[in-house]
Amino acid sequence: MTVAANSRCFDVPECLGDGRREFGDIATQTCPPRGVGHRILSTLTERGMAVQDAEPGFRTAIAPEARAS
What we know:
Layout: H1 3-16, H2 23-30, H3 34-46, E1 50-52, E2 58-60, H4 64-68
């Protein structure tokens, strides 16, 4: 995995921040190809670090106090 690919893995959760984002916004803001962005979000969701809501979009599942450390 390249440095750029590793960086993308961190860009996606940072993009989620404290709010909900639609997939297209995440892909546009973090600039990975859509397939890569989808795989990163799928992995984050499977690992409990992101949540896909009933409404369109994703949000972080990491508690705010944990993100502040």
